[in-house]
């Protein structure tokens, strides 16, 4: 993009940002700072010696000094990431999140239909050893006995590390233009549909749901969101818009990485529930409360709150 066009597209926004530099609203300061750093990075890449770059550098420094004026505000940078920056990323990634959910949901349906129509499909997907172990547990009256197979601590670390690995695999898959991300979503979706259908076929569907989804609500939601991170990076590579392909990819990779990192606490919480809570026989009401609470949190933080945050920013800019 030529520098004149870059300035023309952003000049009005920069004037508004310059006016906002005098605000005491920390949320607005943080949001404006994020916008400026993106524009400054682009300007440094393509117009390193330009007055535009000098102007943006000075304006960015102003916001930096306002945000990080003292140690207390500096410590709040961690809080701002979870409170403002990460949710706002999801507002800008709604399309990718919807695509990720659709791919995963359709894959689950494929797993369900395939399992219902082919007796050998469940073993093909889950493996003979796992199916045989599950059948033995069902015969013993403990269909989710697999969650008692090792100590809580070792299970917590193994499951959490594996889930984080799955999430970052989906994110890194975006470098292939989202092909590996889509494959990972498809694979996990088919496995979930197959896994859950196996229990319903053995008439232990409801007990399995009340146990498995104690941790599965957070875990599966996070896997879908990790797919969103990969799609964000993949789309930035395939559809650079007005940026060069490299610059667009850098932006998408940075955004997707923040989303993937933001999922780590969710996987830690899911690992804790799976290792310490799922193995226990809880009253159905308690299971429903945990499952429902987890679902409400995921929908609020990753879907509803970003929309509320965007409206708040829009009102502040008026």
Automatic annotation (TrEMBL):
InterPro entries, alphabetized: SpoIIM-like
Pfam families (UniProt xref): SpoIIM (PF01944)
Keyword annotations for this protein, in alphabetical order, are: Membrane, Transmembrane, Transmembrane helix
Transmembrane spans: 97-116, 166-186, 198-214, 220-239, 259-278, 284-304
Q: Which PANTHER family does the UniProt record give?
A: SLR1478 PROTEIN
What's this protein's name?
Answer: Uncharacterized membrane protein SpoIIM, required for sporulation
Identify the species of origin: Pseudarcicella hirudinis
Query: Where is the organism placed in the taxonomic lineage, from the top?
Result: Bacteria, Pseudomonadati, Bacteroidota, Cytophagia, Cytophagales
């Amino acid at each position: 993009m030529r520098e004149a066009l870059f300035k023309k597209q952003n000049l009005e926004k920069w004037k508004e940002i310059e006016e906002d530099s005098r605000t005491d609203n920390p949320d607005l300061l943080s949001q404006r700072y994020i916008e400026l750093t993106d524009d400054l990075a682009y300007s440094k890449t393509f117009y390193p010696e330009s007055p535009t770059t000098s102007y943006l550098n000075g304006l960015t420094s102003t916001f930096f000094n306002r945000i990080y004026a003292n140690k207390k505000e500096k410590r709040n940078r961690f809080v701002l990431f979870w409170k403002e920056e990460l949710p706002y990323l999801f507002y800008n990634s709604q399309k990718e999140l919807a695509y990720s959910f659709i791919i995963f949901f359709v894959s689950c349906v494929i797993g369900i239909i395939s399992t219902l129509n082919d007796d050998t499909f469940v073993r093909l997907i889950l493996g003979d050893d796992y199916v045989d172990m599950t059948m033995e547990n069902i015969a013993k009256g403990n269909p989710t006995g697999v969650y008692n197979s090792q100590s809580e601590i070792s299970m917590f670390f193994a499951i959490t590390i594996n889930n984080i690995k799955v999430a970052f695999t989906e994110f890194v898959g975006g470098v292939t233009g989202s092909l590996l991300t889509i494959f990972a979503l498809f694979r996990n979706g088919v496995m979930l549909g197959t896994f859950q259908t196996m229990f319903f076929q053995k008439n232990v569907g409801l007990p399995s749901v009340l146990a498995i989804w104690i941790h599965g609500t957070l875990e599966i939601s996070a896997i879908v969101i990790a797919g969103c991170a990969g799609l964000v990076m993949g789309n930035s590579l395939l559809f650079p818009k007005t940026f060069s392909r490299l610059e667009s990819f850098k932006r998408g990779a940075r955004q997707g990485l923040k989303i993937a990192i933001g999922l780590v606490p969710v996987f830690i919480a899911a690992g804790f529930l799976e290792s310490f809570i799922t193995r226990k026989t809880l009253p159905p009401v308690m299971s429903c409360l945990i499952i429902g609470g987890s679902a409400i949190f995921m929908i609020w933080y990753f879907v509803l709150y970003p929309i509320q945050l965007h409206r708040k920013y829009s009102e502040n800019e008026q």
